[in-house]
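User: Here's a structure from my thesis project, written as structure tokens. My advisor, Dr. K., wants to see whether a designed sequence matches the one we expressed. Can you design one independently, without my sequence as a hint?
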């Protein structure tokens, strides 16, 4: 089961393979912010104006606006491609927010994906939405000491 926390004023479209299907094969974030967790198994594609992201068994956070997409592979593996430049692509393998990215449009070929800081989502939120489906994220942290995700800079 997939679970999402959609931030206020966000617009999301769920995509299915067939018109009468209830199985979601994709998610398009038109504007706004969404935190999502996906189980291992069926692959899902998330898209924004600037990015196309292949997801399987992963926790992710995305912010979309017209100029750029912010994307964090919270844990798991994702394939990220800039929508306007297929030569700008990365496979991200993350244990815990290891490589947040900005995905842009209009830069030179191969230069539309850049490193980004960790912003606007927490491990507690990931733990909450994983717990809703009876799972836990693949990392553990002491609740009393938590101030921010532990990420090497």
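Assistant: Designed independently from the structure alone:
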């Amino acid at each position: 089961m997939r679970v999402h926390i959609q931030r206020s004023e966000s617009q999301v479209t769920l995509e299915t393979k067939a018109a009468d299907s209830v199985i979601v094969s994709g998610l398009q974030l038109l504007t706004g912010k969404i935190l999502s967790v996906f189980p291992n198994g069926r692959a899902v594609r998330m898209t924004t104006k600037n990015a196309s992201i292949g997801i399987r068994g992963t926790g992710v956070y995305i912010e979309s606006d017209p100029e750029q997409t912010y994307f964090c592979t919270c844990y798991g593996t994702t394939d990220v491609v800039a929508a306007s430049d297929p030569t700008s692509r990365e496979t991200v393998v993350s244990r815990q927010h290891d490589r947040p990215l900005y995905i842009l449009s209009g830069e030179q070929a191969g230069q539309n994906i850049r490193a980004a800081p960790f912003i606007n989502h927490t491990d507690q939120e990931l733990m909450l939405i994983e717990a809703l489906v009876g799972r836990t994220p693949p990392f553990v942290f002491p609740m009393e000491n938590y101030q921010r995700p532990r990420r090497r800079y």
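When you compare it with your expressed construct, this may help: DSSP finds one helix and nine strands in the chain.
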